[in-house]
């Protein structure tokens, strides 16, 4: 409709609704394309994991019949030791990171002492240091300490790197807990340890879950550091073990992709189960979220 007084077109409510619907359709189409592009490699991986070499050569993209589910048994026999190693490393890294970052975050958030802000600024500044810049010095240090080909060489770097983000998230989350809770506990005679174990830890479960999930994801996907520091097969994690699986299997693509599928299942299950807590922890642990 044309507004003659001002010489310009005036939109009606029905026109605005039509424009909004068009915009929503465009957003849905764009998101659908992104989802399809993201899921494409996983669909291809699942389809290839139940093929033999002949089916893989003749039907590269399309599913085929019969399904060779025995590929998963072959893959499991190959990668199960690597999965166990990754679980052990992830569990140890989670315990170390949570212990250090929870204590550091609590102290930085609830205690005043000289240099507190400077100390936190230095911790936050470590987030801007590229991990690749410390790769060679860290390798030389581990070699001089005699830690190559041990579990310690896999665990210590993850703890040292993960405690930075963990401390930032913990401190910000604890700052959002009402101070009245700590004041009431202190009035009742609770000390720092009691407030930490009875107030801070129970209320910080969302951010604890976030830190744990981020740590598992980092351990599971770490490839270059285990490849550089581990030469004994019994200490290889699943990411490196899959590389050697490929070399041992040659062109046997079915078991190889079945191994990729099995290796991705633990992270998928964890994220599906903990996604709500993960998002709550991230939102509660970011500056300005409270």
From TrEMBL:
Ranges of residues in domain ABC transmembrane type-1: 83-274
Gene Ontology terms: biological process: transmembrane transport
Keyword Transmembrane helix: yes
Topology term for the membrane: Multi-pass membrane protein
Highest taxon of source: Bacteria
Record keywords: Cell membrane, Membrane, Sugar transport, Transmembrane, Transmembrane helix, Transport
One GO CC annotation: plasma membrane
Classification via SUPFAM superfamilies: MetI-like
Keyword ATP-binding: no
Cell compartment(s), UniProt: Cell membrane
TM annotation in the entry: 25-44, 82-109, 118-139, 151-174, 195-220, 253-274
Record-linked PANTHER family: ABC TRANSPORTER PERMEASE PROTEIN MG189-RELATED-RELATED (PTHR43744), SN-GLYCEROL-3-PHOSPHATE TRANSPORT SYSTEM PERMEASE PROTEIN UGPE (PTHR43744:SF8)
The family this protein is said to belong to: Belongs to the binding-protein-dependent transport system permease family.
Name assigned to this protein: Multiple sugar transport system permease protein
């Amino acid at each position: 409709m044309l507004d003659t007084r001002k010489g310009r077109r005036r939109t009606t409510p029905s026109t605005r609704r039509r424009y909004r619907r068009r915009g929503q359709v465009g957003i849905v189409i764009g998101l659908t394309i992104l989802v399809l592009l993201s899921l494409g490699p996983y669909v291809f991986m699942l389809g290839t994991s139940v093929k033999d070499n002949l089916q893989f050569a003749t039907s590269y993209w399309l599913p085929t019949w019969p399904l060779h589910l025995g590929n998963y048994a072959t893959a499991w026999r190959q990668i199960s030791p690597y999965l166990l190693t990754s679980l052990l490393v992830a569990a140890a890294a989670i315990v170390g990171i949570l212990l250090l970052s929870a204590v550091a975050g609590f102290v930085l958030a609830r205690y005043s002492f000289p240099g507190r802000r400077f100390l936190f600024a230095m911790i936050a500044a470590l987030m801007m240091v590229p991990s690749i810049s410390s790769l060679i010095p860290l390798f030389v240090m581990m070699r001089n300490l005699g830690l190559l080909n041990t579990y310690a060489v896999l665990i210590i770097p993850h703890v040292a790197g993960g405690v930075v983000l963990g401390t930032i998230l913990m401190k910000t989350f604890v700052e959002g807990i009402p101070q009245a809770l700590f004041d009431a506990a202190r009035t009742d005679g609770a000390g720092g340890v009691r407030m930490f174990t009875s107030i801070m830890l129970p209320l910080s479960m969302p951010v604890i879950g976030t830190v744990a999930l981020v740590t598992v994801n980092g351990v599971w996907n770490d490839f270059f550091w285990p490849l550089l520091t581990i030469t004994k097969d019994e200490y290889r994690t699943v990411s490196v073990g899959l590389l050697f699986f490929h070399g041992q299997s040659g062109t046997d693509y079915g078991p190889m992709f079945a191994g990729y599928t099995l290796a991705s299942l633990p992270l998928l299950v964890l994220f599906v189960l903990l996604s709500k807590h993960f998002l709550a922890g991230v939102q509660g642990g970011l500056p300005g979220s409270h």
